[in-house]
User: Fold these one by one.
Assistant:
Number 1:
Amino acid sequence: MTSTNGSSEGNKSSNMDVSEDIRELTSSSDALRQVENGVHRLSEASRREIECLVGELMTLHKKLLSDGDRIQLGIEEYANLNRYVMQLTTNIVDSVEKLRRPRIN
């Protein structure tokens, strides 16, 4: 009876071990799925954030190009205006010099 009891206790023990192993595998499998889901959510959030940042950078790039073009045009207009003012100044100086010269009759 002892050997029968011993073997039946051994079977119970091994059955409990197998059940515990299955529970551990199931819970570790669930944990693995949770980790995978967490990593997926984090990577998805990071991807969206990067896409937003890239979009903002592209918008800033376009604005910089537009501002650069506007500033270049302003500089060109200023240079043209400066040349025109210099011509007018030269004409005025020439006219004033003509007025100062004594007239010979």
Number 2:
Amino acid sequence: MNPPPTMLCAEEARAVLSTTLRGVYGADTRLVDWSADPQFTRYGKERVVRYDLHARVADLPHAQHCQWVGKFYERDDDARKVAMVLRKLPATDDGAQGDLALPKVLAYYAPRRLLLLTFEAGEPVSPAIAHDPRTALPAIGRALAALHMSSVTIDAVTSAADVLTDLRTRIAERCARFPGEMAFLQHKLTQLERDAPLAPFAPSFLHGDFGPANLLWRAGQIVVLDFDKCALGDPAQDLGNLLCQLLRSTLRKPGRLPDFDSMRVAILDAYQRCTSNDPGLVERVAWYEQATLLRKLLREPFPAFENDPAQRGRGDAATAGRRDGMAGYRSE
């Protein structure tokens, strides 16, 4: 399948935006002018464009300014899955949406696999954590709990077995490049296999990549973006992924965020206060933290697990910290 273009031609874009405006604001709405910025974000696998529009809306004296996001997908099924999820989530959180904000679906243009969403403004969540951790960290925990408590169902399912399958493939590829890392990596894989958690009785809706790159802070709310990896599974997986990303941030830029242990406690405490009792959650979260950390370390372009200290020294301080955390992992 040939990937779709990152930009529509001017004529097609005007037609798509005009049709969408009329669907949102009424048949008498007229697009006055528009612009497209295909480089406003550096995150995400799919190609994203921000559209700035000025439109005349019936009964309003001045042109209205709108900002939308257009996301181009390689697969029609993926675009439709995200659209379905975003349409259902606000109506299925049982009133627990106080800390959670989501983009709204405006339209889906199937010929180009283009999903149009509202542009959600906000500041990056990491500075908010640094400035006011007592407010921001519990809000993150509650927002994730609201997602996990939703009743959205999708076909995609993920589990600890899937995580291990992915790690085995990555480790085999890594050891082919750096044979000296084989003993360490095989040992860590064996630990993870031994301690792999059982799947929960009732899987939850998972975001799939719930971390600072996909979160914004806006007036006390957590804006959650990019549901491309959503699936059903163990809520501990989302929590472990989030905590691993915060750990990486503390190691890469020491002093920018509060200490990791305090962030972990604050998020888990807020999350558990909003969800039903889940025996074993903390232990499962710890497993997913370690699995995520190992997966991220496997992406390093230089030896990170060599027995020779001189070889290990080629990495930066953050890599060394993550490696040492991995090396010190011991399951109870």
Number 3:
Amino acid sequence: MKEKIVFILGAGFSNPTGAPLVDGFLKEARDIYFNENEFLEQVEKDFFGKVFKYHGDLAKARTRTKFDIDNIEDFFSILDINIASSKKQSFKEIRRALVYVIIKTLERLIKEDGYALYYNFVRDLCDLSDQYDYSFVTFNYDLILERALENGSCLYNYCLHPDKFPIKSFQKKVLKLHGSSNWLICNQCKKVMVLNHKALGNLYSSSCSSCKQEVIPLLIPPTWNKRFDSTFIENVWHFAFEELRQANRIIIIGYSLPPTDIYFRDFLTLCLKDSDPLRKIVVIDPNNSIKERYESFFEADFSRRYLNFIQRTFSERSEGWGITAKEMIEGELDGSIDGY
């Protein structure tokens, strides 16, 4: 029987393509907005304008409290608190604008020449398919993983519509807990549509295929407030729970386990509670502070028995092609820190 491997992917996984990390996301978005050489459609300028007007107003609070205004998690979290504590429609409009700003920023910063790393990663996994059954739980809005899978002729399933589109044994589960830049949800009937990455240019003009009403990108904030606007997202979280609970090995790449994402911390706790098949958890991240964060999250005895921390970036390898899938799964790369 094949071993079950689950990859948990955070912003550090996508960063080698130019995709921004969490803590500098809004700085990168601001540079796009104020760069005269960056062409933006008028509707896009309006979205950026709303977000950075709110951003500027929020900056006043930094004279009284310490917070990172360019950190997308902190910014999203504060905006959601504003929405929850105020009846003003304007905050909801800012949140809607922020979703489009996120997608446009990713579109502008992700470079085509960065994909080779991911094509090799998928090819590695295909070579190991006789030994391992693997799936992906990702927090990333971008389509880097999907494009790499498509390049390797690997079929995948988002598990949004398991009744309508049953998961086949040859499909890899790609479970995007925070939504995706190519998922659209109808404001009226809550139907979810999935666009091909080549059709993202139609984002502003798309309408629901059922009721013809407006559709907007389906992104879930990376914060305390997980507002599931659709049962389809609940399906994704359900499958993620089962995958993690049944995993033999969990490989975490570039996910910082942020303090603001209390929901996923509790979710992971429940997944691990009955995870009898679990043999190893491998965390890949270059930052010592992230190692300490995982150390404080897990019990010391559990850490000694199951955890292996590889203090490197996903792309870091002497040959220049990144850590191989085999090295990740086995967790025996030189420079790793077994059990902390």
